[in-house]
Design goal:
114 residues; Hypothetical Protein Tm1070, Chain: A; six-stranded antiparallel β-sheet; globular
Length: 114
């Protein structure tokens, strides 16, 4: 079962505004069977990672799931546990106006295993 992570995103405010207020996640099941997906989101508090998102669901073959999560923290990370190597995950930070934040983007080829 592949375990993937965005890595820790620094989201410290600049001039009082955080680069990203939400994180949009796109999960694509390119397999021929239904897969299991678990998403965990963490924010950093001092030196501790605190779990604040935990979601588990199934994704039919050939389908896509889109999720949006609150991300107004100084630092945050998302981890994905999927039951197939044919699942691709991308994640994009968005500012308060809904614009993509390129500093907080991870395309499928950049999601790291852990």
């Amino acid at each position: 079962m592949p375990n993937l992570t965005t890595g820790l995103f620094d989201n410290t405010p600049v001039a009082g505004v955080r680069p990203s207020s939400t994180l949009s996640v796109n999960i694509s099941n390119d397999d021929t069977v239904t897969v299991d997906v678990q998403i965990q989101g963490f924010f950093q508090s001092g030196t501790t990672k605190v779990l604040y998102v935990q979601e588990q669901f199934t994704l039919n073959a050939g389908s896509v799931a889109q999720r949006t999560y609150f991300a107004q923290f100084d630092a945050f990370e998302f981890q994905f546990e999927v039951s197939s190597d044919a699942v691709e995950v991308t994640a994009w930070g968005k500012d308060s106006a809904g614009n993509l934040t390129t500093a907080h983007r991870v395309v499928a080829q950049e999601v790291d295993s852990f």
